[in-house]
């Protein structure tokens, strides 16, 4: 997520299912309008402090994070009190009544969260948390998760038959890694102009030719 510090003009970000716990790198993305952070490791709603400075943020998906807590109403009211410009939260439209109620039931966040020690750009507590996660969580990867990410990017979902063909006999971990890399590449492509996209197209064509040649040799 630290790459966002170098992408001030990015408009849509999807980091769902990525173990993210720190939103500080996003506070400079002044053109950000849609942010998808479903199913990460955001433990405190104080992380919203870094989103309060984003004037164009209209869509936020924060569900399935520890910060949502056991009280859905309190969680939603707190988010809306601090981000009153949102039009949609967790795929549910925001109403004028909710915004008014948020002033009463929501908690205002006025300071950033107490930051943990950070080494090499990674939060120490986040790394420790990842190490203790159940193996099933670390290796979770499915066609549904892949398509959910692609839907957030407004990309046509992958057909089930095609998914099975490009992910044969692979571990869930390697498949999940591919999906994360794919999402990152698609996001970065939004920052490229026509010349940059042509370079990407040429590079992809060469890579495909190399893979096809390798497959013919193996046959």
Automatic annotation (TrEMBL):
List compositional bias (Low complexity) regions by residue number.
Answer: 123-139
The record, for PROSITE patterns, names: LRR
Region (Disordered) location: 118-139
BP terms from Gene Ontology: cytoskeleton organization
| Domain U2A'/phosphoprotein 32 family A C-terminal, residue spans | 72-90
Q: Which InterPro entries match?
A: Leu-rich_rpt (IPR001611), Leu-rich_rpt_4 (IPR025875), LRR_dom_sf (IPR032675), U2A'_phosphoprotein32A_C (IPR003603)
Q: Which GO terms describe its cellular component?
A: ciliary basal body; photoreceptor cell cilium
Keywords on record: Leucine-rich repeat, Repeat
Organism domain of life? Eukaryota
Q: How does this protein assemble?
A: Found in a complex with CFAP410, NEK1 and SPATA7. Interacts with NEK1.
- Function per UniProt: Plays a role in cilia formation and/or maintenance. Plays a role in the regulation of cell morphology and cytoskeletal organization. Involved in DNA damage repair.
Spell out the protein name for this chain. Cilia- and flagella-associated protein 410
The species this protein was found in: Phainopepla nitens
């Amino acid at each position: 997520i630290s790459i966002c510090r170098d992408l001030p003009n990015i408009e849509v970000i999807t980091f769902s299912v990525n173990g993210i716990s720190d939103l500080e790198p996003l506070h400079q993305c002044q053109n950000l309008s849609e942010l998808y952070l479903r199913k990460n490791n955001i433990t405190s709603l104080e992380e919203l402090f870094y989103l309060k400075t984003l004037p164009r943020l209209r869509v936020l998906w924060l569900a399935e994070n520890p910060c949502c807590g056991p009280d859905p109403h309190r969680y939603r009211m707190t988010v809306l009190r601090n981000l009153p410009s949102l039009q949609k939260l967790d795929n549910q439209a925001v109403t004028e009544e909710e915004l008014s109620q948020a002033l009463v039931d929501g908690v205002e966040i006025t300071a950033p969260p107490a930051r943990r020690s950070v080494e090499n750009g990674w939060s120490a507590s986040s790394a420790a948390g990842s190490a203790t996660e159940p193996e099933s969580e670390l290796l979770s990867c499915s066609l549904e998760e892949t398509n959910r990410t692609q839907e957030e990017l407004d990309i046509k979902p992958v057909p089930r038959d095609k998914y099975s063909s490009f992910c044969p006999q692979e571990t869930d971990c390697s498949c999940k890694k591919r999906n994360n890399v794919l999402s990152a590449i698609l996001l970065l492509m939004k920052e490229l102009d026509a010349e940059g996209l042509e370079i990407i197209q040429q590079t992809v064509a060469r890579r495909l030719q190399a893979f096809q040649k390798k497959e013919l040799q193996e046959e």
